[in-house]
């Protein structure tokens, strides 16, 4: 996380903006952002997770720096150029969406500066309309809700996301109850409606939780 938030400057300082957006650290975050352990890391109170509280703030600022150039690039007629800009926008907005949603309500979070939010919002909404339900489109709509503080949409989104992540229902495949849920005390990435179902899932013949459950310091 520190490598992404505070990267070492490249030898050619003119490439600083590109390096901040396209570094291997960014690729790593993009790959793990849907992992439930990343969710637990982001919401942790441990010191090792503290830098992550700045992710939304930093990502919004970087997006603002690149927004005008990337927006122009979407209309570039050269082969694959528009696609590359679309990919860059989609990945960046998706990471911002993840940071905003995972840290929603966390008092330790460094918020997105209001002035920055006001300046990038027109781009976000424009891209959301352009991409529709394609890559990056849904993330643009989600970021727009957060930046505008539209709690109704935000709460619906968070509820839907919790279900997709398996955090809103019993993890035993044959159950899926949404009542009386308690998280696994070892990994904190799945929930159960009863200790009996937790024990059954631990020894499940097809998808035993014991193969996926890992203790984490976060």
From TrEMBL:
Keywords for this protein: Metal-binding, Zinc, Zinc-finger
GO molecular function, one term: zinc ion binding
Span of domain MYND-type: 172-213
PROSITE patterns: ZF_MYND_2
InterPro entries: Znf_MYND
Protein name as annotated: MYND-type domain-containing protein
Organism expressing this protein natively: Botryobasidium botryosum (strain FD-172 SS1)
């Amino acid at each position: 996380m520190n490598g992404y938030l505070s990267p070492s400057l490249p030898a050619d300082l003119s490439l600083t903006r590109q390096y901040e957006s396209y570094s291997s650290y960014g690729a790593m975050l993009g790959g793990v952002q849907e992992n439930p352990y990343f969710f637990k890391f982001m919401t942790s109170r441990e010191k090792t997770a503290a830098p992550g509280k700045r992710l939304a703030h930093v990502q919004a600022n970087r997006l603002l720096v690149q927004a005008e150039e990337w927006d122009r690039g979407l209309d570039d007629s050269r082969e694959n150029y528009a696609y590359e800009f679309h990919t860059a926008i989609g990945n960046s907005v998706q990471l911002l969406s993840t940071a905003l949603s995972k840290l929603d309500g966390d008092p330790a979070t460094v918020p997105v500066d209001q002035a920055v939010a006001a300046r990038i919002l027109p781009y976000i909404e424009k891209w959301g309309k352009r991409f529709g339900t394609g890559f990056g489109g849904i993330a643009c709509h989600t970021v727009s809700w957060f930046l505008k503080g539209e709690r109704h949409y935000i709460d619906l989104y968070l509820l839907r996301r919790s279900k997709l992540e398996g955090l809103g229902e019993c993890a035993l495949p044959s159950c899926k109850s949404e009542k009386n849920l308690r998280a696994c005390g070892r990994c904190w990435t799945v929930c159960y409606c009863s200790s009996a179902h937790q024990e059954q899932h631990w020894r499940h013949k097809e998808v035993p939780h014991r193969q996926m459950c890992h203790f984490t310091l976060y």
